[in-house]
Amino acid sequence: MLHQRTITMVFSCRALALVIALAGIGQLYSQPFDTLSARTSGFPVDTLIVREKAANDPRMKVALLSRLVMKYLYLDRQEECMSTSIRTLEIAEPTKNDTLIARAHLAIGTAFAIVNDVNAALKHYNIALDRYTSVGDSIWMGAVCKEIAVLYQRVGDNVGAMGYLRKALAYGMPPGIRSRGMSMLARCYLDKGDLDSALFYVQKVDMIGSPAQDPWGYAYSNGALATVYAARHEQDLAELHFKRAIAAADSFDLPLPLIQYGSGYASMLVEQGRASKGLAMAQMCFNVAEGVQSPGILEKAADALADAYYANGMADSAFVYAKRCIAYRDSVTATQNRSQLKSQLFAQQIKDIEDAKLKAEEAEARSRNIQFGIIALIVITLGIFLLIFSRTAVVGAKAIKNLSLIALLLFFEFINLLLHPFLDRITNHSPILMLLAMAAIAGLLIPLHHRMEKFITNMLVSKNNRVRLEAARRTIEELEGEKGAS
User: Fold this and answer.
1) From residue 469, how far is each of 151, 385, 395, 396 by CA, in Å?
2) How far is it, in rounded angstroms, from Cα 119 to Cα 131?
């Protein structure tokens, strides 16, 4: 009867633990992270900041902050991009959720990329890739591969960039990122002079129906098409897509695509002999670039404006802007030096976070080991007491039997506790595999528990009975001896 009650209690405890675990899993995955992220896609910067401060769910916070990082990237706001990515990591790390931590490292990689620290960006992109691989999220594995390809393209390694872009296509990517990946692949083929392949891939870019849906995507998809058509001298199609890209960028205050494609359009107009229109477009791009105050962008705009002035026979103005272009190029070098300093400070902040995380993990491991040691000591002490009690007549057989059942229960549950982290690792946190593994272990331990219970209980109780009988025999002999003496 007692044995049946013990088994019932074990099953009840495990069933309760399973219900709690499954409830936690249901709560954790009640809404996919990508769904939360998609809900933030149309928010402006101010709205993202307000909503992040009001949010309590760490997943929602990470979704909002990672979106905010991308907004700062598009606006070339380096310091905000770095500080926001650090905050993303600080929120994601305590959750120990691979998807959230991967998104945080993706944001940090983006922040390093914006200050041109390719090595640091690559390090964090690879961390993100490993995390996404561990959860089997192929779509975002592709997205990270695309970002790594951007780094390769930035340092002039088109072969490496194309290799990672092909990986990204094999994994799959979110729609907007896939379009940018296709346009990048087209750009790589364009740089190689393979215009047919460039056209093939640029035509696979997902065209946005309206700039209101995704202004950035609309501008860049049309701009990518325009660039390839211009290289192929299909000028009517190139002009159509240049105008669409420029109009969207101008309407939604996107200076980077406006200057990039506006300068390209100005160059095409000059080549066509429409020098006055080319000059007007180049002047507009330069005015926008002055508002951005980025030397790299100003250099590109000044170069286009110098060419336009020269085409219009205005050599003096062309010379002035050519000199300014050189000055901006020198300023780019100074800006890169400042960016390196920012990158070093940013890297130190990340290192501080990682060091704090390591210390917390070490403290947690020490605490866990101490608790395991205490539990082991309790089990061993209880076993020693059982052996001692079984050799005395102080404790009865029933008490010994109950204590032995408790000791065995603690021993087997301690084994289960030790195995749980190991199972967690080998099953990669899969609830179904964990359930099957725990059921298999229970199937082995419960019969073993029954056999050991019978063996140990019988052994200890028998020994206790012998001790008690021996004590009773000695007592009887002493009493009989006293009677004989009297």
Assistant:
1) 85, 20, 13, 12
2) 19
Q: Are 306 and 322 in contact (CB under 8 A)?
A: yes
For 279-321, the pLDDT digits (tens) are 899 888 888 888 776 666 777 788 888 888 888 888 888 788 7
pLDDT tens-digit readout, 437-469 = 777 776 766 666 566 666 666 665 666 566 666
How would DSSP label each residue in 213-268? T-HHHHHHHHHHHHHHHHHTT-HHHHHHHHHHHHHHHHHTT-HHHHHHHHHHHHHH
CA–CA separation, 307 vs 138, rounded Å? 46
Rounded CA separation 18/442 (Å): 13
- What is the predicted pLDDT for the residue at 407? 72
CA distance 292 to 74: 12
What values do phi and psi take at 430, rounded to 5?
Answer: -75, 120
d(CA 32, CA 37): 9
Q: Greater confidence, 458 or 83?
A: 83
State CA 159 to chain mean position distance: 27
Q: In 115-207, where does DSSP find H-type helix?
A: 118-135, 138-154, 158-171, 175-192, 195-202
| Least confident window among 126-130, 224-228, 342-346 | 342-346
Contact (CB, 8 A) for 189 and 231:
no
Task: For residue 81, give the nearest of 94, 93, 89, 72 by alpha carbon.
Answer: 72
Six-digit token string for 39: 């809900």
pLDDT band of residue 104 (cuts 50, 70, 90) is very high
B/e letters for 422-445, b = 16+ CB within 10 Å, e = fewer, are ebeeebeeeeeebeebbeebbeeb
Domains of the chain: 27-136 (1.25.40.10), 207-351 (1.25.40.10), 364-475 (no CATH)
pLDDT in the model for residue 436:
77
Structure tokens at 54: 């009001």
| 351 vs 367: CA distance, rounded Å | 24
| Amino acid identity at 434 | M
Q: Provide the b/e sequence for 453-483 (b: ≥16 CB within 10 Å).
A: beebbeebbebbeebbeeeeeeeeeeeeeee
At residue 180, the pLDDT reads 81
Q: Are 66 and 103 in contact (CB under 8 A)?
A: yes
Q: How many Å apart are CA 382 and CA 443, to the nearest integer?
A: 26
- Mean local confidence (pLDDT), 46-72: 87
